[in-house]
Amino acid sequence: MADNVIQLPRPKAARPQSDALGFFIRVGRNDHKELLDLIAGGEDGIFGFVVDAQNAKRHRALLADARRRDFDVILEPKTQPMALPGGHSDALAELPWGLPRHHTLADFDGDEGRRRVEQIVDFALEHRFTQLIGPTHVLAGPNDPWLRRDIQAMKWAADAIKARKAELGLIYSMAVSIDVLRREGERRALIAAIEDAPKDAIWLRIENFGDDASGDKTAAFIDAAREFHHLGVPVVADHVGGLPGLAALAFGAVGGIAHGVTVNQSFSAARWRRPPTKKTGGGPGAWRVYLGGLDMLVSPAEAGAFLATSARVKGKHACKDTRCCARGQKDMLAKSARHALYQQAREIDWLSETPQGVRAARYVEERVRRVSDEVAAAAALNGLSDKMKKALAKKQASVGGFRKAMGHLVSEDRAASVAIPPPRRAAKRS
Fold first, then answer.
1. CA 247, CA 254: separation in Å to the nearest integer?
2. CATH 3.20.20.105 residue spans of the chain
3. DSSP conformational letter for 361
4. What's this model's pTM, rounded to 2 decimal places?
5. What class is the 20-278 domain?
6. Is residue 103 within 8 Å of residue 161, measured between CB atoms?
7. Phi, psi of 97 (to 5 degrees)
């Protein structure tokens, strides 16, 4: 069996769903057709789909089919980029709560703020979303003036949902930098501030943290995320993928992760903070190809060239799971979005199947160690393109330190709590 296929110990029907770790997909503008095909094929490792408000009409077929199949559909109201000069756009301005300019603090004060929040709730209900990411903003820290307004906005959102007698889950999106999260005093002040804010879950959207995070950053995130557990709601790592995302799950720091389709697996608001620039034409780039054995996402051209290096490389890294890629390498390259999501869902299934007491140790031994060894072997190959050589050298330098940090964390870890996994929609409905 190929190294990039993770075998599940028992059929999905036999698994305790309450123990399953959450996996949410942030849907890009052109991802809907691929995701419709994926769920039509019976994929149920995904818990739900996050849709940007400006794309709600474009994705109406996905929203309808996902609801019918008992996936959560989650509205992203885009209030975080809308409050920064480079995040504002004409498409966001056309939303009911949008303006010709980026939002300011005054736009979320008093009656005007309440009206704007109610417009977001009404939009979510009109388009039949099952959950709503609350109208929060990127914070500089616990003294950021947006924090008070965010807490009030969450209360207004909860009031509006109750007044409309609606069933709509409310997610608190905490968006801060990893530096703020690492500082104990600031972190605890943030947690204390939002303790009484209405919320069914907390999604941690941490700037400068994601699939490329070092072992040190990942250990710091795990330690910090655990402090959110006492709030008594599921904690999800948003915009996090790769080995760091699996680490947060394996060590029980979060109960779920969310990221895009081969993109948006880390978060930075730097572009939003810059003054707006003239928009240029051109469509979105192609989906990247997931090389699971290397924990890397590369362009289709680079993936094809890498797999053509030798029969040994193809045998080790081309997908041989016919449930994922029926035509093997051809489908891996041609249907790279499906391949990536399918394999990432299986990785999370594998963690869910592992008892919590040994989950972190098994993750380090069977996942991190294997990636570290495979990257070292691949970096030593002849015939690689200069771009792939550079990418593998960078990966080799980072994964070695990551392996040491996670191994040390396993040996020293004495976690007192484990994050609550987010419930599936079917479980909530029953």
1. 9
2. 20-278
3. H
4. 0.94
5. alpha beta
6. no
7. -100, 10
